[in-house]
Amino acid sequence: MTNVQMAIFTLMCAALSVVANLIQGVALEPSLVGIAVLLAIVLGGVIIYKLIYKLTGWKGLPTVAYICTLGTIVTVPDFLPCAAFVGSAASKVSFLGLCTPILAYAGLAVGKDMEMFKKLGWKIVVVGLFVFCGTFVGSAVIAELVLRSMAK
């Protein structure tokens, strides 16, 4: 993916996230501020990735690792003065509003490779069912443990 394509995709996701926030009843201004903060974190992570690759030639970690690390660092309380602002601004953005355009893009990417999907055949369906069931059971176990620990 080129830099221009990445920028267009990121801005489209941001615009769709703002629309999703508006649909869920979040006011426009907090939504725009939250999206701007998240975009700044994404841009910072991409810049870090590009700098590391340019300086060392190492492509060991994906860009998302740098974005997540940077997002974690800038929200650690009492570590940076902006942590409270970043946390409160990002909390105004709906998680589902962020996931929707990304999942739609993933669906389009899978739909584009239907020939590869057909080659995998029935085995991928079995693997998918095990993954879905395992994720559901794992989530239920974790939720049960947390709820029981909170009840004491």
Q: Helical amount among residues, as a percent range? A: over 70%
Please report the distance between the alpha carbons of the first and last residues: 51 Å
Count of helix runs? 7
Quick one: biggest sheet? none
> What's the number of structural domains?
2
Low-confidence stretches: none
Return Rg in Å.
19 Å
Mean of all residue-level pLDDT scores: 86
Tell me the β content. under 5%
Question: How do the SSEs run, as a string of H and E?
Answer: HHHHHHH
The tally of strands reads 0
Coarse structural class: mainly alpha
Question: What is the 3D shape?
Answer: globular
Q: What does it look like?
A:
With 152 residues, this protein is an all-alpha fold. The protein folds into 2 domains: 3-112, no CATH class; 114-152. The chain is 82% helix and 0% strand. It is built from 7 helices and no strands. Helix 1 crosses helix 5 (95-112) and helix 2 crosses helix 3 (63-73). The longest helix has 30 residues, at 122-151. The radius of gyration is 19 Å and the shape is globular. The N and C termini lie far apart (51 Å). The mean pLDDT is 86.
Note the main attributes of this structure.
152 residues, mainly alpha, 2 domains, 7 helices, globular
What's the layout of helices and strands?
Layout: H1 3-23, H2 28-56, H3 63-73, H4 83-91, H5 95-112, H6 114-120, H7 122-151
In short:
With 152 residues, the chain is an all-alpha fold.
